[in-house]
Structures are given as C-alpha cells and as structure tokens.
Design a protein that fits this description.
alpha+beta; three-stranded antiparallel β-sheet; 19 helices; 49% helix
C-alpha cells in the first residue's frame, strides 16, 4: 500500500515518527553548538556580519541567536527561548539554550530505546519541579539586608564572560550604584528597581575606564536653537507628540479663493495657529518643551523669546521615560472635547533643573532632580562602536542581574555548583522511583552536567577530571551532615581547580538558575512532543493574485 493512498489531499511533504524527532534534535544541537563556546568567563566572542555588512561582535547568547536568521521551525523555539530568558532574567541566555538542547538529545536517545515520549515528558516535568524545590530549600543563601559586596559580586559574575571582564571591579560598582539610585516603592508598597530609568549613552573616545554615572536623565540631543538658555530651573516639562510647524491643510482639503488678498490671510492664519499653540504651552507655565517631531524656525523664535528650552526629535522611548520620571503626560493633541484647543497645566512634569552639557563631542540635555522617580544615566566611553555596543549589552545583563538579586534577596554559587549539586541529587532521586520516569530523571540529571563540562572545555581544562571531582564533592555534601558547606563547590576556571565559589564571590541570583531550568525543560518538552511535520507546498495559483 503506497503512502499516497493514505493521504491524497495533503499538498506538501509529510515526515513523521523518528525522522522528525532526529531532525529537530539535530537542528537544536546545531543552534546550541553556535553559542556553546561563548559560555563562561573564558568564553569566546562571535562576530556576526549581516546582509548589509554591519558587524556585531558579541558574547550574549540572545543577541547571537537574534542575529542568526534561523529557518528551522524547531530551532526557532530555542531562539525564542533565549529571548524569553533575556526578557525575564536578563542573563543566562547561553546556558538556557545549551541545557535545552542537551535535554533534547538525551530524550531522543531514550525514545530510540523504545521509551514513550509521554513517559519522558512526565519524568522531565517531575525532575524540573524537584530541581527547583531543591534549589530553593538547600542551595540558596539569603542575603539579608543586602550590603554592597554581594551585589558587586553578582554583577562581576555576570560580566565575567563579557568584553569588560578586565575592568569588572570598576563596572560592577557603576552598575550597583546605578541600580540602587533608581530604587522606588510602588503603590502596593513593594520596592522596585526600574532598570528602564537607567539611560545608557554611548560616547566615542577615551578608554572604558572613563565611563561614569550621571545623576539625571540624559537626552542625546541638543537644544533646538542657540539662543535658548543653557539651564532652566525649576523646570516645568511639556512632552508633546506632534509637529510644532506651520499647520498645513490636510491632504485633499481644497480652498477656493476668489480674492488674491485672501491668500495672504490664509497663510497668516496658518502661521498664527502654531503661534497660538505655543502661547498656550507657555501660558500653562512650561519652560522645557520636548517633542518627538519637528519644530520649525518660526516657532523656535517664540521659545527663544520666552527663555524656554525646546528639544526636537526626541526618541519615543526616551520620551516615555522622561514622562514617567517627571510625572508628565505625553500629549498627542491639543484638541479637547469641545473641539477647542487647550493645554492643561496638569500635563506638565516637573524637575529641579534642565541643563545642556557637553559630553564627549555631543551636546546632551540633562534632566536632573525628577519628581516621581529618580533617573540616572550611564555614560559609556570606548574606543569604537563595536566595543561600546558590547559594553552596553554586558551592562544591561549586569543591571538586570543586580535588580533580580535585590528583588529576590537570594543567591546561589556560580561556576557549575548548582548544576552539579542538582545532578547528584536527581540521580539519587531517580533510583528511589520504581516507575518509568526513573530513566528520564536520570538522563535529566546527566544533562545538567553539560554546563560545568562546557565551562571546563572552554577554559581548555580537562573537563572529565574536573566534573568528576565536582560530583565527588557534591556527593559528600549531600550524604554527610558535617560537610554541608561543600554544596557551594564550583569550578575556578582560571586555575583549573575546584573551589568554594560562595567564598570566592562567584554568585548569581537564585531566580536566574530556577528560570533557566524551567524554561529549558519547557522548551525541550515542546519540541519533544512533535512527532509529525507537514510542510505545505506553496500553491502556484495564488502567487499571481
């Protein structure tokens, strides 16, 4: 019986069963192998050149995978996984992809040995729950009333694999100060650290060590005209989202004029409308006007005369942050319910002062002493664009990690410590189960060891020996009551030995590890459940329409 008789109506290729699984696993392995070498403090960077020749040099898993245009549907799941980790935690994007791919590879071997995918999935789920429970009960260290030291250590651990690892002491201090200075309490009384309030500005020149923290939100544009004052204090800020230019008629509006003298009046009226708008703004008390669109020269004249600072072409997201920090409202139009044009003074935000300063070679408008939440700016200096971009990515990861540490208050040891501990624990757990899931859990335990293995391989050390030592330590820690402190033993990749990473200051927020395990398992399960793939052939007839 031929295949075509079974499904005559599918216009496309159909693959099912083991073929699809093997294919998906291969694709995910390929993606993971790309980022594998960039894991850890001695990881290497990747150079990505896109179709128009722009070069990106990066070590950040999410960035690498975003730049690769992955075609394979199963591999796309991994790319989305890395982006999810980037959004949720901010760091650990590479680890997530590597763990997920390893889990898949192990699962595929089990399926080949005639174990049903459903059993594997339930085993993985169980292992994931147990692992997260074990981290939260046994491995975490509370960092009560966090002093600066653990925070700086977290930031340094996050930066260790990045370009700026050489100056990590310096940058870790910057990052911790930046995060602590945007501390705020929301309505429910929770303490939050909005990372978005930290603006990162990149300026060419000088060395990375000359980067610094500025108090105030910096806008990367100068004043719109030279006649405006350099500083205004106290500032009342209006955030606009429309053009302050001569109002033109809408398209398709025709005015039929009988008398040529009317033309002049129409032109005059067009100019006056903008003038009236500006007068409304100034009457409401605004002395700093930010707009995302343009302001033309005629309109600038009025601002200069009033002694106000106007800034045009401000980026949308900058605008949102300024509005949030100063308590302003983004105004998209002056029209009110009655059809008149009004401007409500309640829409204005307030700040202590707005000044224009010169940073590097650019004029920057700084908004200082904002009303609702404090805003700070990190000014990064560096030799070239690639370095600045990579520094920004590294700092973004570090900022997120410090924020997570502050909000969750718990840390775990880094350097493969958690993975090895979980591996030993889950292996022991697997032997206590008498069900089918036993095999899946044992494989899950093995898969977690991929992290210390890859770390050691990247550092050009003997992976087998180091991982064996690590597991011995963790086994001791879990079996002998007086050796509990061994549970934070991890790898020291510079010297190629095993050491206590909690004392060495290699720590990460516990939340990051828990999320890595959860996300990786979920992604692996998603791909594992697929056993049939139908690729539809594009219909020729529809292309012409």
């Amino acid at each position: 019986m031929s295949i075509s008789a079974q499904n005559p109506d599918i216009s496309g290729d159909r693959q099912s069963g083991q073929d699809v699984r093997t294919q998906n696993v291969m694709a995910c392995q390929a993606v993971a192998n790309i980022v594998k070498t960039s894991l850890g403090p001695v990881g290497l960077d990747k150079m990505l050149v896109d179709d128009i020749g722009d070069v990106t040099i990066t070590n950040d898993g999410a960035t690498i995978l975003r730049m690769l245009e992955v075609e394979h549907p199963a591999a796309k799941v991994l790319v989305e996984l890395a982006e999810l980790q980037d959004r949720e935690v901010g760091d650990g994007t590479t680890s997530v992809v590597i763990v997920a791919a390893e889990l898949l590879k192990r699962a595929n071997d089990l399926v080949r040995n005639k174990i049903h995918p459903t059993s594997i999935i339930s085993g993985y789920r169980l292992a994931m729950r147990e692992a997260c429970k074990y981290i939260e009960e046994k491995l975490v260290t509370k960092v009560e009333k966090l002093g600066k030291v653990p925070l700086i250590n977290c930031a340094k651990t996050s930066m260790s694999s990045k370009l700026i690892s050489g100056d990590s002491d310096f940058f870790a201090n910057l990052v911790v100060e930046a995060v602590l200075s945007v501390k705020m309490t929301n309505q429910r009384g929770e303490i939050k650290y909005p990372i978005k309030g930290i603006n990162i500005l990149k300026a060419h020149g000088q060395s990375a060590k000359d980067s610094y923290l500025l108090n105030g939100y910096a806008l990367n544009t100068g004043r719109a005209a030279q006649g405006m004052p350099l500083r205004v204090s106290p500032a009342k800020i209006a955030c606009l989202d429309f053009n302050l230019q001569k109002t033109k008629m809408q398209l398709g509006v025709q005015v039929v004029v009988n008398d040529p003298r009317e033309l002049e009046k129409i032109r005059q009226r067009e100019a006056d409308m903008t003038k009236e708008r500006i007068e409304k703004l100034l009457k409401a008390g605004a002395n700093v006007i930010l707009t995302t669109k343009g302001i033309d020269d005629m309109a600038l004249k009025y601002f200069v005369e009033a002694g106000a600072i106007a800034v045009r072409r401000v980026r949308k997201e900058d605008m949102r942050h300024v509005a949030k920090a100063t308590g302003a409202t983004l105004v998209t139009t002056f029209a009110d319910m009655e059809g008149e044009e009004t401007f409500d003074p309640a829409h204005l935000g307030s700040a202590d002062e707005v000044v224009e300063e010169r940073i590097a070679d650019d004029d920057v408008v700084l908004i200082k002493g904002t009303k609702t939440s404090s805003a700070v700016s990190l000014i990064l200096r560096g030799a070239n664009d690639y370095m600045l971009d990579e520094m920004e990515r590294a700092l973004h990861d570090a900022l997120c990690i410090v924020k997570r540490t502050l909000e969750s208050n718990t840390v775990v040891a880094g350097g493969g410590a958690v993975e090895s501990a979980l591996s030993v624990y889950l292996e022991h757990l697997a032997t206590t189960l008498g069900s089918r899931e036993q095999l899946a859990i044992a494989e899950f335990a093995d898969a977690l060891l991929i992290i210390p293995k890859v770390l050691a391989v990247n550092a050009a050390k003997d992976a087998t020996e180091l991982v064996a030592k690590l597991r011995a330590y963790h086994h001791t820690a879990q079996t002998k009551a007086d050796k509990k402190h061994y549970s934070s033993m991890g790898l020291d990749l510079v010297n190629g030995i095993v050491r206590n990473n909690l004392e060495a200051g290699v720590i990460e927020p516990a939340m990051s590890k828990v999320k890595i395990i959860q996300f990786a398992t979920e992604a692996a399960i998603t791909i594992l459940r697929i056993d049939d793939m139908i690729k539809l052939v594009k219909d020729e007839g529809q292309g012409d329409e």
